[in-house]
Amino acid sequence: MNAPTITRRYPLRAFVAGARWLANPVSEGGAKQVPRIQLYTTGPEMLAEVQQMRAHPTGRRILADRPDLAATLSTSSALASHPPGSLGRALHDAMSVPGGIPGYMLAGLIYRDGFFDSYDMPDDVRYAIERTRCLHDLFHVLTGYGTDLAGEGMLIYFQNAYRQAIGFTRAAISAQGLGPLLFLRPRVGQQRWRTLLREAYARGTAARERLSPMFVYWEELLPRPLDDVREELGITPFDEDTSDWLANTWLGRSAAKGFGAYAREAERAQLARRIVEAGVDFRGLMRASPERQAGLRRLVAEGADDAAIQAAAEGLCGDAPARRALPAGNGM
Hints:
With 332 residues, the protein is an all-alpha fold. The chain folds into two domains: 246 residues, no CATH class; 59 residues, no CATH class. It has 21 helices and two strands. The chain has a two-stranded parallel ribbon with strand order 1-2. Helix 7 packs across helix 10 and helix 11 packs parallel to helix 14. The longest helix has 23 residues.
């Protein structure tokens, strides 16, 4: 199979990735499909949006500065240093829930199997896409949508409007849109559930009309009060607890736990988080071979200190395949 390019769409590959995601979205195998679906279906739009970044004052500054948002959001101590009530502190608290999977681990799934590194695209487009992949947990905090399956379903519709600018009909018939729309049966009832999905999409549209997330210098917003950031970005938070909305049926309870996959993968994610906190870049970790990752997790489980973990991880980024890049501005 030829390496994909950002200038094209790949509907068949997107269909296959969508089917794999629908099989079990609450699993690593399902979550790994999300960046594939997005790149296969909206690559040309991503390319065009980076062109708009080049023309936007803040977007141009972001592309010039190249701040490492992934490193910022994966450093727990840095987030904890932000003032109480700030966006950064709220994100830290949300990421520190016991048994959870940090958002940067999910973002790092884009590197699995050499998928993203094999894509042809200009370097600034690659940077911008990597940057937006880190925003998932921030969106949870800003929108108020929970990390349970019902909350994720609404966030999908918010993101389709806010981050991807996909029309509602197109969003609803995509694999990610069909999942929440057809296969979730929250206790609030189907009529209200569908209304909530439309409202989530409308919230995303309103926020994007205020300012595209590609043009937001997120690092500068982390120390600011969460409510002020929401107001500036035009994001109205959702204030209902959805954590038990799927608890009324066996299927809902099982799906919310990924049919047993989530608990296993959350345990592995916590070991991986310890590796990152020891000073190992999560991107190198996610690019590493399964055997190398498993060896590092075993070290953590055995109580290894930071120095031992760093020594074992030396040269980790060397496991990554060579990136393919088009000249800047190609296809624009």
